[in-house]
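User:
Care to share a sequence and structure tokens?

Assistant:
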Amino acid sequence: MNPYIGIVKGKPGWIQIFEQEGLSYKTFQPPDNPAVLVVDDITSRNAILEYLAEGGHIITSTEIVGKLLGEHMQDVKIDYIVPDASEVFHNSGIIDVYERGHVRKKEGFGTTDNDFPAVFTFQYRKGHGICFPFDVSALLLKNVSQMKYFYAKQGRFPAEYVCSVSKGEVRKLAINSIRYLFRKKGIHYIHKWYYPDGKDNAFTFRVDTDDSGFAEITNTFKIAEKNSLSFTFFVEVKCLQNALHKLKDLKNQEIAVHCFEHRIFRKTEKNQENFLRARQLLHKTGITTTGIAVPYGLWDNSLGALIESSGFAYSTEFSYAYDDFPTHPCVNTKHSPVLQIPVHPICTGTLLYAKNNISEIKQYFTDIINEKCVSGESLFLYGHSREISRYPSILQHIINEITTRKNIWAGTYGDFYKWWKEREQTKLEITSERNLLKIKTKETNSHLHLHIITAEGKHALIPLQSEIDLNKITFSQMPQPEPFDRKRLSIKQGSLKLKFKEIENWIKR
């Protein structure tokens, strides 16, 4: 048996999810019999129904289920989905959608903001399926941004201008649903682990140097050096023109491009000049750069195309995505070679602007780190050298929270980029014969592990090898998910105030 995922058309949003998760997948060609079939297109209706009738398991949208089974679905506007305690919402937060979708007048999992059931299971003859109220691929390709509040257990809620769709939460729902169907089918779920050498998590810290002199950058560097850590400094070059050469003194740190001048222009040519001028001036001092963080975290198709044509290897903008695994954005309908490395969008400055005190800010980061460690979501955080220099105890607190946990990888954005590319390039073909897994790959990867989850909910991390005898593996129970705290729904109040914040945000630019 080959426990792979089939997909009918191969729309780019679904491909992004498969690559993020490290799953084996291929385009559906009847009479293929994939473990789970993602139905992202209805043109092969008869073949899909035949696969279902023979005991197949599918994931699709509620709209497509209506066309498959001849059911009427209700068209509704969905702002967000509230998770429940069901398996498909393990470790999920509020799923921001802000799009029209379809719902069924039947019992389901989770609820939309207007109190409709959100996710549904269904049966067709011997087969089973799960359907979502939206088109996953279309939602992940949506590039609209808005001001949002982020939940804090103490103090005031910070707000930031970010991607309107919480793409990381959409991915979790999709992956939880695939795992649910694997379990229902009684087969092992196998994917490439997210972190090198079987580490539990990964920590990177991004430093934006907006309006900072070299003294403030040095103060931040000293914290990294004191803790034997390597950060990535995204440099606003204009502020440092007479001190650019001193950046070479930041030993074991990565230097990347933020901009020459901290602005975004309406014309692409002006933005290109801004980014390339910064990179060229850094190169003149002997500093090679591969990454960029666009000012204000902005990203759209035009900026994505510019980043790609300028030759950057990776970028990190929370207007594209936040709190998610790396992916390749679709630029001009094609996957870009540039790797987008999402970051948690709230920093010390955002929390200070919301009028939180130092104790509340430290608690915020403690809570974020705890949540990400429970869910296995990357610990990618950021800050500004200006605030770090003024409040060094906050960054030290973050580092202390990270280093008290064992088995966490730490490095620069460039380091993680290299790892993720290595992971992407290791293509696997997995077959299962009773309790023996056979793995074919053209590449060797000594850092890659496979994550295996049994139908009983146990799991293990195993170094990549050509054969794995499942009888010889010691499986342990999967960590219990954190239940959704309904207090988090309080961030959905005060939309008028957010509009004023959004206007204020644009005026500042």
Summary: The chain has two domains: 5-192, 202-419. The domain at 5-192 is CATH 3.40.50.880 (Rossmann fold). The CA atoms of residues 353 and 475 lie 46 Å apart. The two ends are 56 Å apart (CA to CA).
